[in-house]
Amino acid sequence: MCVLLGPSGCGKTTTLKMINRLIAPSSGNILINDENTNDMDTVTLRRNIGYVIQQIGLFP
Predict the structure, then answer these.
(1) Which pLDDT belongs to residue 3?
(2) Which of 29, 40, 41, 52 has the greatest number of C-beta atoms within 10 Å?
(3) Residue 19: how many CB atoms within 10 A of its CB?
(4) Per the structure, how many domains does the chain have?
(5) What integer pLDDT is reported at residue 16 of this predicted model?
């Protein structure tokens, strides 16, 4: 399990998009279990990644 925490605008969403191969990193490689994500099947990669977004609840 990996958790991305940080203030607004620090790059959490961009990082997740790069891990999911929605955008390409400008340099370097992204490895999951020592395997480059560029060598993985995109559909399989995305099906094995889950995320939870923060939203305002019904009660403040």
Answers:
(1) 87
(2) 40
(3) 19
(4) 1
(5) 92
Number of Cβ within a 10 Å radius of residue 15: 15
Tokens at 16, concatenated: 């997740």
What's the whole-model pTM score?
0.75
Regions of the chain where pLDDT drops below 50:
none
19 contacts 49 by C-beta, under 8 angstroms? yes
Q: Both tokens of residue 44?
A: 């399989």
Residue 5 lies inside a defined structural domain of this protein = no
Strand, coil or helix: what is 46?
helix
pLDDT on residue 9 = 93
- Asked whether residue 2 is assigned to any structural domain, the reply reads no
